[in-house]
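#struct-pred

JT: dropping the chains for the assembly here, can someone run the whole complex?
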Amino acid sequence: MISDISISNTDLVDPNLLKTFVTVVRCGSFSVAAQNLQYTQSAVSQQIASLEEDIGATLLTRRPVATTEAGARLLEHAEPILLRLAAARADVARASGQPPEALTVATSALALTPRVAGALRALRARHPRLDLTVQVSAREEVVTAVATGHCEVGLIDGIAAPNDPLRLWDEGTVTAVGVAERDLVVTLPTTHPMASRSSLRLADLVDAWWIDAADVAAPLVALRSLAGTDGLRSAVFYDGIDASGLLALVAAGHGLAVMPADQRLPADVIGVRLASPRLVYRIELLHGRHASEPAAWLADNLSAS
Amino acid sequence: MISDISISNTDLVDPNLLKTFVTVVRCGSFSVAAQNLQYTQSAVSQQIASLEEDIGATLLTRRPVATTEAGARLLEHAEPILLRLAAARADVARASGQPPEALTVATSALALTPRVAGALRALRARHPRLDLTVQVSAREEVVTAVATGHCEVGLIDGIAAPNDPLRLWDEGTVTAVGVAERDLVVTLPTTHPMASRSSLRLADLVDAWWIDAADVAAPLVALRSLAGTDGLRSAVFYDGIDASGLLALVAAGHGLAVMPADQRLPADVIGVRLASPRLVYRIELLHGRHASEPAAWLADNLSAS
DNA sequence: ACAACTTACGGGGGCCGTAACAATT
DNA sequence: AATTGTTACGGCCCCCGTAAGTTGT
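RK: done, full complex below.
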C-alpha cells in the first residue's frame, strides 16, 4: 500500500486526436483525412482545434495544410506512440489467448531467399498443425506490421555497412537479428561500357541513370546516404515486387540497379561487384519482445551467428 | 493528396485506462489507487472492467490484487506509453512557447560534482537573465523528469563497467552523454580489518554487512547485478541525500558502502580502491531530443570526450 | 463560384458519482 | 462485522453529425 503515486502532473494527450492529426498531416488535407478516418470534415476540424487548444499551440497551417514547428515536434512523438499503443494490445492478446497456433511472417520481396524458404518449410514440418502465412510487402509495411503486432515475425532486407545493423524506422518495441549478409553487385546491360569491369566504385556511376526500385533492389535513398553523394539520378521508378521486371528494364538500358550478388540474372544483364563504398546486403529478422515458440525457433534457426 | 492511409486496423487503447491500471498495480489496491487518482473506487473498478473488456482478457486478480500474465505484458507497454505521452506534450510546449528562458536541471545527489557546479556557474554567467533552477532528487525521479519533459536536463550518477553507458530505465526519448568516469572505493571504518589493504575485491566482502544508500552511494542492487553475486547483505537503509550522514554510519560500523574515489571522507573512514570487478563510477547528462540553446551548451561543455 | 476549413447547435453515448450489493477475511 | 470490489442507475459532459458561415483561389 503505497500512498504517493503520481505518474505525471501534466495530463495525457488523447491518442484519437493524435491519430487524426497524423492522418491529416499525411494526407495534407482535412477532408481527405476525414474520408480515411470515416469522419466528417467538421469532426476532423474540431478534433484538430481541440488538440491545438489542449496543447496550447498552433500545430498546422491551413491552406495549404502543413505542420508548424510545434506540429513537427508533436508528429515525431505521435507516430511511435500510436504504434506502441497498437503493439500493447497485440502483445497482451498473444499472452492471453491460448496459443492460436497461427504465425504470420511479413517479408520484403528480396528477403525471401532459398535459405529462408527452407527454414519456413522446416517450420511447417516441425509444426504440422501450425497455420503459417507468409505475407510479402514493402519494407516499411513489414516494420509497422511487426511493431504493431499484426505479424509476429518480419523479414527485411536492405543495405548497410558491413556488420552494421540496418537502421529501422522504429524504436524500442522491435528487436532484430541478422540473418544473412552478402556482397552487392551493380546490374548493367551487357552492352554497357562498364560491363567488362571486374569491380566498380559507386563514385564512377554517380552520373549514370538509375532505376529506383525501392522494394526489389537497394533503394536509392539508402545508397545515396551511405555513399555520401547526392547524385544517382533516377527517372524510372519501379514499384513492382518481382526482380525479373526490374531486370528487364535494366537490360533495356533504362538504368542501373544495385542488387545482392546471388540474384539470378538473365543473359543480357551482368552483375559487377560493387567494391566501394564497402557496403553489404543484409537480411534481418524482426520480432516483438515475447516470441511464441515457433517464432523463437525461426529466429534461432535463421540467425547468422 | 494520398488516398490509402491507415495507421492501424486494431483500434487504440485509452491511456486514461492505462494510467489507472498502472496506478492500481503500483498501489496493489483499487481503493488506494482511487484516492491517488481522485476518483471513487467505483470509477476505478469500472475503468479496469472496461479495459479488460476492451482488451479481451483478465488483467488483474482481485483480492489480492496482482497482475495476470496478460496484465504483466500490458504493464510493460503502459508505463513507457504514458511517459512518452507526457514527453510529447512537453516537447511541443518547448517548441511553441517562445524560449521561456528558464532551465531546470534535475540531478541525483552525487552527480553534482565541483565540475558540474562550475559549469552551472558558467552558464549563469553566459545567460544572466536565465532562470536556472537545480533540483536534487532520487535517480528514478531524475529520469522520469527528463523523460516527461518536466526538466530539460538531468544529471545522474551510477556504476557501470568501464566505457559502458548506464542502463537507464527509459527507452527512446532520452539521450545520454557521459560527463565523468571515476574509480570506486569501498568506504570502511579505520578500525576495519581490511582498512589497511591497498585494494579490495568485492568477492572478499560479499559476506560483510552493507548499507543500502540508494541515492548517495552505489545502490546495492546495481552492485549485485554487476558483480554477479546475490550476497552483499544489508540491514541498514539510508534514505538521506547527503553523504556525511552515510559516512557517519560507516564510521560507526553499521556497514560498508561503495562511493566514488574523490568523495571527501572524515578521519575515521577510509576508502580502499575497488579492484575487482572492474567497475567505474559514471555521471551522465540526460536531455530530450531537442535541446534549447542553454541546455545544448551545458551538454557540450560537460561532455567527457 | 467553388473548394475547403470553421462555427453553431442538437442529440446520443460514455463516464463518473451515489448507493445498494456481494464476497472475502 | 468490516473492508474491498462489483453492479445499478441517473445526470452531466463530450463528441460527432448536420447545416450554415467564412475564407482563400
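JT: nice. The longest helix of chain A spans residues 69-96. Residues 29-31, 41-42, 44-46, 49, 62-63, 65 of chain A lie near DNA strand C (CB under 10 Å from a C1').
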